Amino acid sequence: MLELMRKHARNWLMKVILGIIIIVFIFYFGTMGGRQKAETIATIDGKTIAIVDFQREYENLIDFYRRRYGEMLTDDLLKKLNLKQQAFDNLIHQAIILHQANKLKLEVTTSEVTASILSLPAFQRNGVFDDRIYRQMLRSNKMTPEEFEERQKKLLTIAKVENLIFDAVQISDQEVYDLYRFQNEKININFLQFPPKDF
User: How far apart are alpha carbons 91 and 57 in whole angstroms?
Assistant: First the structure.
């Protein structure tokens, strides 16, 4: 086909068409590599949520439900669970909480991140952290230690903000009792019937 185009390239129309095709190829394929890295699904307060993060969150949800339901997890159930929306909502929730943490100047130290990783049972053998298991599990999940540590830092920051919120909400014993009574109280009602002609 290219040879046919070269033979007829003397024709101005053919030169213009060939030029347009070349320009399209340069712009489309030349920018694809950079575009794939930067693809985002949402931007919240200037912070982007990358498609890679969405895919990872989605896969984590699928893994969670596979462990929970086992063979009972069918395609129909997956559709009903709407995991893509759940993954998106989770990422939005995290972004909002991290934004709040930034406003409150809440930080997680390196030692807190290290302690949390060392305490994760998934990375332990006989109750002791095993670096080999840690690295092997990260490789199987296509994560570097730096990426995982950053993820842990985010999760710990989110936990700090949520703890602040829950600690700020105080419920008295009386409020708990009143709520319990409201939810469990039964009323006995006795009816007396009177014929309408008596009135």
Answer: 8
Instruction: Quote the tokens at residue 79.
Output: 């559709």
Q: Where are the domains of the chain?
A: 40-104, 106-168
Q: What pTM value is reported for the model?
A: 0.59
* Per-residue pLDDT at 153: 94
Q: What HEC string does 125-145 produce?
A: ECCEECHHHHHHHHHHCCCCH
- 130 pLDDT above the threshold of 70: yes
Write the CB contacts of 67 (distance below 8 Å, at least 6 apart in sequence): none
For the chain, what is the mean pLDDT? 78
Residues 145-179: b if buried by 16+ CB within 10 A, e if exposed: eeebbeebbbebbbebbeeeeeeeeeeeeeeeeee
Count, residues in the chain:
199
